[in-house]
Each structure stands twice: as C-alpha cells, then as structure tokens.
Design brief:
N-terminal domain of TfIIb; DNA-binding; 3-stranded antiparallel sheet; 3 domains; 3% strand; 3 strands; elongated; mainly alpha
Amino acid sequence: MDEKKKHKHDENTLVCPDCGSTNISQDPETSELICNDCGLVISEEAIDYGPEWRAFDADQRAKRARTGGPLSVMKPNRGLTTEIDTSNKDSRGGKISVKHQTTINRMRKWHRRISMTSSYERNLATALQELEKITDRLQLPKRVAEEAAHIYKKAVEKQLIRGRLIESVVAAVVYAVCRKNNIPKTLDDIVQISDNDKKDIGRAYRFIKRELNLKVPFTSPSIYIPRYASALQLSEDVQERAKEIVEMAMEKGMLSGRGPTGIAAAALYIAALEKGERRTQKQVAEIAGVTEVTIRNRYRELKELLGLEDLE
DNA sequence: AAGACGAAAGTGGTTGA
DNA sequence: TCAACAACTTTCGTCTT
C-alpha cells in the first residue's frame, strides 16, 4: 500500500520530462504551450506578476512579504486593498486627538466591513490559496486555475460551501474543470496532492456539479492513452492503435459504467502486444492505477467484442 | 522464477424503495 | 435509512513461458 502510494506520487511529479517532442499545442487565449500528454505547461508567454516565494498560511505570508501583494485576477479585489491602520497617528506621525479617534474608529470599522472582512472575501482568500497550491502541484495551465476560480466564486455566491471544507470544494472544482477540458487527471490524482479525504472531495464534486449544473462530458478513455503510453515509453504506433481500439469499443457501446482508465490500460496493453512492444500487465496496471485483474477483464471483453485474433 | 489467467470473497459507492 | 447491486480490488491457486 505504502509502496503503491509512493509510486503514484512519482508518476505525478515526474511525468514525461521529454514530451516536448511531439504532442504540444498552444492555448489560443493565453498562448501557453501545453503538453497534451500530461497537461504540463512547457512555457508561458505571459509574465508572472506573483512573488517568487510561496506561503501556506497567513503567518508565512506576512513574514515573507516585502512589498505590497502581487497583482492578480486570482485574488479578491485583484490583490489591491487599503487598510486604515490602528496606530492612531496622522501622516506626519503626530498623535490624533481623542475626539478625532472616535471618528476614525468608525471609519475604520466601515472600511473593513465594506472591503475585506466579509465572510465572502475571507472564504475566497483561503480558497484561492488552496487553488494555487493544487494547480501548481498538478502543473495545470493557468486558464484551468482561472476557470476553477470562476466556478468556485459561483459556488460561494450560491452558498454551496456551507458544511464543507473549503479545501475539499476547491479540489472538487479543479477536478470538474479537468473533466470539462479533457485533461487526463483522475480523482485519485487530485486526492494524492490534496490533504483531504477522497470521500469528501468526491461528495463535494457531485454536489457542486448538480447544484451548478456543470455539464461534464463523458470521459473518453483515449485521453489517458498518451499519458500512459509515454510513461511506459511506448511508440506513437502503439498509441494510435490503442486509440483505434478504444474508438471501436465505444462504437459498440462498451462505455457503460466501466472506468475509463481500465479501458485505456487494456487497449494499450493489447496495442503494445500487437506491435511487439510487450509490457507486462503489472507494468500497465501500475501506471494506470488499476489492478491486473481489471486489465484482464477489459482485455477479455475487448477481445471478444472486437473479435481480435489471439496474439502471441 | 516470473508472468498470465481466473475464481472467490471483500470494499466503497450508487440507486431505489 | 436500508438493502441490492455493479464495478473494482485483494488474494490465492494453477498453468505457461
């Protein structure tokens, strides 16, 4: 169990370092170069206005900040806020009279009430921090983070967060955005880098999806093929063949209920056999995060469904 | 010795009363 | 809220390479 977890984590952090070779596309909006194999952002045209350090809680943030906060659409008020400080001095450092202090206190109260301290803002602040952590660890492109932020805001406005951990909801939203954009990340991938329960995240995902009417398309197994293939160092040939197999299986309606990762894994296993680049079931199973048994079952189903000849 | 195969029992999540 | 259910996993024995 421990070993398996470790392995999965490696898979996430070290995905195809050389995938710059072929499968790259450019995002029309942000002009980011994105690897289709794993969603890795190869290079970004946009300048990052954020700080070079990272902080996970308010304390760290306060210690590390040297100037004002970074400008970002990912922050409430774009990171620009003003605050009336509590030292009761005027701009030249002189004391403010007691008479004026009450006025200023009142101003301070309202100012804070209006700008920063509403629960909405506070909620969003933690959420965006968490969102940054997750998208960073999964190496997801910026537009995914932005779409997720947008959806999350809607969820807060509709009061859907009540009774749920902010972190779980953020993870759920990220998962939903990945699904929507056909980015090959499983719920397990998200759980690996999040500190929360799979149960919580899954429940939050279903809830958010239903309440916000998110239209999440059926996940085609083929989106996992490039990712698994490069992790297994299989050729383009094998990938193409595996995609063909998936296509054929889908036409015959094999998609009912079965997990897409298992189908992708089995198709890849078959394709690799056909092209003489044999991988063991165990190898494929580990990469795909399913068991050998599942691969065997899908393998058997695919074989009889497609009438594939026995291969040796 | 390692891989492939499949039966049987167990697990976590969904669905419908 | 509970029970039935499907998909998947775990475990294990057997056969093949």
